[in-house]
Amino acid sequence: MTTEELYSTVVLVGLAIAAVTALFGLFVTTPYGRFENKRLGPTVPTRLGWVLMEAPALTFYAFYLGTPHAFEPVPLLFAGIWTLHYANRLVAFPLLMRTREGSRMSVSVFASGWVGVPLHAWLYATWLGELGGLDASWLSSPRLWFGLGLYGLGYGLILHPEHVLRQLRASRTVADDDGYKIPYGGGFRWVSSPHYLGEILAWTGLMAATGCPGGLFIWAITLANLVPRAVATHRWYYRHFEDYPRRRKALIPFLL
Ligand SMILES: NC(=O)c1ccc[n+]([C@@H]2O[C@H](COP(=O)([O-])OP(=O)(O)OC[C@H]3O[C@@H](n4cnc5c(N)ncnc54)[C@H](OP(=O)(O)O)[C@@H]3O)[C@@H](O)[C@H]2O)c1
Questions:
Q1: How far is the CA of 98 from the centre of ligand 1 (A)?
Q2: Which of 181, 226, 238, 244 is 20 to 30 A removed from 143 (C-alpha atoms)?
């Protein structure tokens, strides 16, 4: 089997995983955070759960460094973006997060990361360094700059709401019954989960900028994870706060 054939097969496997995740999401809200459910098997402390879930992102470097174009400028640019993205998700987010006392993440949640994250890492690394043909001429492609712009917008929309949510809690650990408040400002003016919208925009932008077919996998699984969760979160806010802003939508301003 050639690398191209293997690549197409892995993309299809990834899309099948995303479809199963979407189906699963119709019945169960992923058990962490406000939807934590200690009855769904063993759990670990939430902060540790995030690190364990995202740690397989480091496999990217093992895959990438073995590719023939790893040290060319355009692949390096995109490898840098991978690093930027996971520096937040794997290091800054768990380190800075402010959790409720005794907050736990189900083992099934972080274990799912051990399938999806390395798959994504391999698809992205193999495209950048081997199959993508991302030579210096790619720098003059409008598609690259459009995609990077969209990624930048998405990344900002991840970082700012995550910061706003942290500021709602006074310390690194708060009492369980004082855990949640209504967030205001930035993207929260329009939607309940602007960071989820940011995540979707960021991966869409990176897929456009790199032309990476494997980007379809992370895009589909992000939608499968975050669309139902955004809707469930929005409903949760309405149930818990009588004064929750009525005009705010769940995920897409004015629409959903
Ligand atoms: N690509 C993907 O498939 C994917 C999947 C999942 C998540 N993500 C990304 O990972 C990041 C975190 O996701 P998440 O689902 O954990 O987001 P989240 O439910 O909004 O929680 C983020 C942090 O803010 C806290 N928080 C949330 N709402 C709060 C409120 N009203 N008052 C006070 N604190 C609040 C949470 O505490 P608690 O833990 O106590 O609730 C948690 O520490 C997001 O940027 C998301 O886009 C990506």
A1: 11
A2: 226
